[in-house]
Amino acid sequence: MNKNINHNDKVIITCAITGAIHTPTMSPYLPITPDEITKDAIAAAEAGAAILHLHARNPETGQPDQSPEGFAPFLPRIKQGTNSVINITTGGSPYMTVEERVEPAAKFKPEVASLNMGSMNFALFPAASKLKNWKNDWEKPFLEASEDFIFRNTFGDVRKIVKMLGDDHGTKFEHECYDIGHLYNLSYFVDAGIIKPPFLVQSIFGVLGGIGPEMDNVMFMKQTADRLFGDDYIWSVLAAGRFQMPFVTQAAMMGGHVRVGLEDSIYLEKGVLAKSNADQVKKIRKILEELGMEIATPKDTRQILGLKGQNLVNF
Ligand code: KMH
Ligand code: ZN
Q1: What is the pLDDT of residues 245-279, one digit of tens each?
Q2: Bridge partners, residue 285, by sequence
Q3: Ligand 1 atom nearest to CA at 16
Q4: 114 CB less than 6 Å from ligand 1?
Q5: Given ligand 1 and candidates 263, 265, 266, 277, which is best to mutate, with the most ligand atoms within 8 Å of its CB?
Q6: What is the pLDDT of residues 55-91, one digit of tens each?
Q7: Residue whose CA is closest, atom 8 of ligand 1?
């Protein structure tokens, strides 16, 4: 029997705390400063998030900041405040080079880093027309410029990141797959022996440029991953905006793991902003427990994903 459809498995909750997509004008609750990121991450862990997916921002402007110095003020504090697995982004923000994007994970050698599995359009521009009274000058042009942006993740880029972080530092990856083709890209690396099982596939629904947020697509993604990877993969789902909670619930019903957090949606329910990341973690936890599912602890998560352990990170 395929482990991914065993409903008795524990469900790993990942929480993506701030990201690089939402801007300060969109929500006053988006964590920006190292203090805010630390507080929200620890509260999310206390609420049940076994993995914390982290980005950094400029504390004054809220602009995405992918310098190691941007991460340094909060990584050790979050590590001290929780047992949860710390996952450092290599996606960074749409406008950074791959070299910049990999720097924080190369320096801090986390247990997990994100790894985006294909080049694509990554369009944020429709959000710009819905906002007024911008808090910062950078926000509107940042969103608008995404109309002509390509999020670069070539086979060469992926290969280099796996070598630099995986082979050299023992970091494992959250393989971010925004479309069915990205599963095939991942399959190339698996078949070539470059990425080894067990590996975490994060299926993403609802980014403009990736696969659309339709329930049939969740089934299609899972069936394709089952065909390509059999029992070798651990499956998790995230969905953008209002699709977040229904899609992750559907994934959990199908035996998958879930990702929530203000990086993916600033809402708690229709028209209501989430006041913290922990509020979203509590909500999905309640849904999953009501459905009879058990939540994975950080210890369970390290075992499921085969991680190197907190003592081998460099922060
Ligand atoms: N913002 C998500 C849709 C990354 O950090 O590598 C994808 C993401 C990218 O989490
Ligand atoms: Zn991210």
Answers
A1: 999 999 999 999 999 999 999 999 999 999 999 99
A2: none
A3: 10
A4: yes
A5: 263
A6: 999 999 999 999 999 999 999 999 999 999 999 999 9
A7: 91
